[in-house]
Design a protein that fits this description.
By secondary structure, this protein is of the alpha/beta class. It folds into three domains: about 160 residues, Cobalamin-binding domain (Rossmann fold), CATH 3.40.50; about 250 residues, pyruvate-formate lyase- activating enzyme (Alpha-Beta Horseshoe); about 40 residues, no CATH class. It is built from 20 helices and 17 strands. The chain starts with a strand and ends with a helix. It binds cobalamin and iron/sulfur cluster. Iron/sulfur cluster binds next to helix 10.
Length: about 475
Amino acid sequence: MKRVLLVNTNIEKAPYPVPPLGLCLLAACLENRYEVRIYDGVFDEGRNLVEEVLRFQPDFIGFSIRNIDDVVIDRHLFYVEGILERFIRPVQAIIHVPVILGGSGFSIFPEELMQLTGADYGIIGEAEQSLPALLHCIETNTDTEYIHNLVTAQQTKIRSHFDFSYPTPTDFRFSEIDRRIDFQPYLARGVYSIQTKRGCSHGCIYCTYPLIEGKRFRVRSPEDIADEIEQAHQRIGNITFEFVDSTFNDPKGHAEAICREIIHRKIKVRLRTMGINPGHCSEELFELMMEAGFAQIDATPDSASPLVLKNLDKGFKLPEIEKMAGLIKKYNLPTMWFFLFGGPGEDAWTFQETLDFIDSYVNPDDMVYMTAGLRIYPNTPLYDLACWEGNIRKEQSIFQKPAYYFSKALSKTHLDQLIRKATETRHNCIPAIETAPPPEMIKEAMILRETEMLTEPTFRTLIRIRKRWRSEGRL
Ligand code: B12
Ligand code: SF4
């Protein structure tokens, strides 16, 4: 049996360490035909990778590139240099086997990463079918031309030629993350990631998700999802299960069906999810989510200004966000809100519209992250708009030096001032750059949680400490 080593090059541990779900799913697809091993770089950070390669002697090596940068304009962490230094270069120096790239970051910037790394192959988007097909072609020395979304060192095709429609149903397997990597370090701060579908058929102008996962929803059955959660829960015990879908409650009825299956089986787990679409929120959804075990959600309306929502092409309107906020309050479901300021048409007035919404509708116990500027990604409508408005030039690279979109009517400086002022007077509102609280605050939160045996999400404990520090003049 030939050997495949899959390397997770992500060492980011904020806001918390995320296990390499995609690599585990690929390992599940390959393991019948290959001896597969995953090297997880999150905690080891590349220190023992060379040793692992020498021991395992792989025939193929796949590197997963998840994050390119942190999307925080005033901090700008560029991860790629570290990925080259810690992972790719040391391996290329000791072994000459086909090197394959993939992952969500890679899927956004394939040409740049192929050139920079000198990799032999890359697969854009999901790879459950393409990766086994590629390995087979390499082994049998047959033509790779028909492999879905493949790039090669010789032919880093123009991205617009790629197909994001994914016509065939996805071959969803159980990731069994805890069996494939050392899951111990994740038990303290981590989560068990679950994907219930792929793709997003909405068209928010800045968003890369439809480019990475495809432009239509492809869902798993609720039974399959519940099976996966049930089995992982039996193996691991107390861990939070987190849904990593683009939006959890899309398409309509999907989230409700998953909750019903979990309730029906009496699975007692702690759940949380990113992306709740205000468009599909109902009393029934919230009731089911509470009963199924949701302990936290992320609400990402981006704006509460009717004009900006329309210009971002969010596909929902202010009354739907107000309804969602009402349900969040009614069910007291801990929520992290995310607002993205500076989009097309944003000005001081629209900024105030969103602030008014926060003041009137958001539970003050919930966290609100305020981001200034929208990261411009290739192949998005925002990219075209930014070129047209002269914000960026077509020949300009936005890979290593990311470009951010700011509305013509509100400069970055002015927007920063508005955000600073808004966050100074609201203890639960935080500028995006401060996503990691000061270490002393985290320490205090941990002590408080332990002594008072708190089970609320940590952000709620942090909000209370922030409020106190503010009143004591420590913040
Ligand atoms: C869920 C998510 C989060 C969650 C993670 C929760 C969790 N439990 O995992 C949270 C909110 C915490 C988060 C945080 C961050 N995220 Co995030 N996140 C995502 C999201 C939506 C899905 C990731 C995921 O799990 N996908 C499901 C798995 C199954 O897919 P996958 O890993 O991509 O794997 C498939 C393919 O990519 C491929 N593949 C993967 N590896 C390999 C390797 C080889 C060799 C091959 C051939 C193929 C291959 O095959 C796999 C199976 O089909 C993506 C966007 C997206 N739609 O991809 C952004 C995304 C990855 N995040 C992004 C960023 C920037 C971040 C943060 C840095 C933001 C911040 N400043 O906090 C942090 C970093 C956190 C960390 N510790 O790394 C960016 C990265 C792009 C960039 N600019 O760098 C993305 C792409 C979103 C975007 N802006 O476009 N994130
Ligand atoms: S709904 Fe979310 S995932 Fe879908 S396009 Fe809009 S921002 Fe992206």
